Recover the amino acids of this structure.
């Protein structure tokens, strides 16, 4: 196809690791091509097997933020446009979750961090299997750690992404992985933006459900149950969540939450 023909020199450019300017030009052209392509065209003509390895390698670039930014942008677009079994599954096998999380745990360039958040939102929205892998790469802590650095719209993406991952908590190891992020979400329940509050509430509700399920399944006795209980009580999540579940004296909902979240 014409797209395959156009992409051949782009792929060669991406693999030109001795010529960074050529790589950057190839990344820019790839992003331009992806922006105007449909899912149908990409499925027929784009080789994830060929393009994903160099893109994930370039995402890890630390000394040139433009290279990391455009690699992240290309991966985000692919995660958005292509079937998850092709693009998302492929990039995660190559370590993209760890790479995006690393950009968020050490924010040197705000545009690269914002692109990483956008990518993780697309990836975690592609299915619980993919969201769970991101969560186990430290994704919940990563998307919430530097929340104050970002504008409100980006903060919404970050908290929504955290909520996506918290739907996948299923073991003691998962609870250990996410528990340090829970106080951040509790604090967000009193935030001034309703959408951020909603995503924080959903994330906490999902985490709470998962922790309770782990308690019910636990075969290790009272000590582990006490640990789970301590995780819940120390964050004061129940107290803060209950404040958003108010009803008026006439029995109507008196909450900023949507009806779906409330019930």
């Amino acid at each position: 196809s014409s797209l395959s023909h156009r992409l051949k020199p782009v792929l060669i450019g991406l693999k030109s690791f001795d010529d960074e300017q050529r790589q950057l030009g190839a990344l820019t052209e790839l992003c331009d091509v992806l922006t105007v392509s449909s899912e149908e065209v990409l499925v027929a003509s784009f080789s994830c097997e060929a393009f994903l390895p160099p893109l994930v390698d370039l995402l890890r670039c630390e000394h040139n933020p433009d290279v990391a930014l455009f690699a992240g942008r290309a991966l985000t677009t692919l995660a958005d446009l292509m079937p998850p079994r092709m693009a998302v599954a492929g990039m995660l096998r190559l370590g993209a979750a760890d790479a995006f999380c690393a950009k968020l745990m050490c924010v040197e360039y705000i545009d690269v961090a914002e692109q990483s958040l956008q990518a993780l939102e697309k990836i975690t929205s592609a299915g619980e299997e993919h969201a769970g892998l991101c969560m186990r790469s430290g994704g919940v802590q990563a998307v919430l750690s530097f929340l104050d650095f970002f504008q409100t719209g980006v903060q919404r993406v970050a908290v929504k992404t955290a909520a996506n991952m918290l739907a996948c908590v299923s073991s003691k190891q998962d609870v250990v992985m996410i528990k340090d992020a829970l106080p951040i979400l509790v604090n967000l329940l009193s935030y001034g933006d309703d959408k951020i509050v909603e995503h924080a509430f959903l994330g906490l509700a999902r985490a709470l459900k998962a922790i309770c399920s782990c308690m019910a399944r636990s075969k290790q006795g009272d000590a582990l149950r006490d640990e789970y209980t301590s995780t819940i009580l120390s964050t004061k999540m129940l107290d803060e969540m209950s404040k958003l579940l108010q009803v008026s004296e006439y029995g109507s909902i008196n909450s900023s939450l949507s009806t779906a979240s409330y019930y």
Remarks:
- Residues 1-167 form a domain with the Leucine-rich Repeat Variant fold (CATH 1.25.10.10).
- Residues 194-217 form the longest helix (24 residues).
- The mean pLDDT is 90.
